[in-house]
């Protein structure tokens, strides 16, 4: 049925029962008509044999005689010695009557009922009876009758000829038998249909019981219950539906867990800067510090809270993008519409935006780019956020005056961005928790346990989520020499898109821009 609002929908049970019972009822209706006609044909054959026996009985009593009234000397005359009462043996009961007529060789009336209609049809060449006989329906004295016409050979000493014997029987008995046959056929077929309907209803009820039980189980669940549905006793036909439902509920559970964690972490992380801001405002009102100093401290706290909020929103967006890829990326879903961009201009722009921080730390910055565009399938904001977080993290952990290198290149089917700093690297204790939200990014390699660093601890989690959503990989490897950590290499690999794909529209950030090697020292 239609799924439009207000349209009536049929239950699965009704669809199954109607789909089975209607064809069965139609078949049984046709079968009833066929059986009724076959029964009538059999009854007609039986009564026609009785009618033929009557005609033969009359024909066997015909005789030839020489001459007679109205005949010349030597002519043959047909004589019937039949008494009508002798036909009573062929009458089944009082409900039917028999009439006969015997015609001579020339069609003259010999015996019987003179007003009986003469034969209207030719005798068939072949019949199922061992006689030259034909049966047909006719009317006599305003009543329908069954007529039998028999050609009876008659022979005598003076010659031979072919007499015509007609026997007509009224149809009361045949009609009564036809009604009995019809009623008997109808009630038997009706009883069979009722039996089939009962069996179908029972089978359909039993077959659809798991569906009703599943609906009842889902209706009885609480809003927060996303546990998998039990499938051991489910029919084979319901397994795909149950498996798909369980997979969907697992995705919902994962999504809700992310949302709960995000809300929990947000409330936890924002509580501290808000509390600090309140203390600073109260201190400023009391005049504990000069106005300029108090305003500067309040501004710094607000900047910290703003950065934290932006990072948390970026993390939520990265997780949403990653979830979308898990749900649709493998089957050509929404991620198939991601634009193709050149990564090099994005890296240049991010380096330019962070140049003030590099200058503040007096870093020796080096930027190396390939001669050809580096095409990747990604939104501009994802590439910008990914590059900015990694480069900002490297700047924050680089010693003053140290060297910082950024190298973008292609490696087989991958586009690789390598950011090399001279910081303390990653400790063994921190490495298992690097990509978890609010992990301590600035822990020193030698700390055991690592100390609580500055910052929100979301940068690497954001980068990791974005890289996974783009189908790539992220690794953080310490550069060591003789057991001493010289720095950290942050390597991002994204799938390289063929240049044969359509280039981004003119004016987009991913537009192909001639890019030569750049080294700013």
Structure description:
With 521 residues, the chain is of the alpha+beta class. The chain has three domains: 14-179, no CATH class; 240-330, Helix Hairpins (Orthogonal Bundle); 338-495, Histidine kinase-like ATPase, C-terminal domain (Heat Shock Protein 90). Helices cover 44% and strands 21% of the residues. The protein contains eight helices and 14 strands. A five-stranded antiparallel beta sheet has the order 4-3-7-6-5. The chain has a five-stranded mixed beta sheet with strand order 9-11-12-14-13. Strands 1-2 form a two-stranded antiparallel sheet. The longest helix has 49 residues, at 172-220. The two termini are 73 Å apart. 22% of the residues are buried. The model is unreliable at 1-7, 329-336, 441-456 and 500-521 (pLDDT under 50).
Distinctive features:
14 strands; disordered N terminus; five-stranded antiparallel β-sheet; single chain; Helix Hairpins; five-stranded mixed β-sheet; 521 residues; alpha+beta; Heat Shock Protein 90
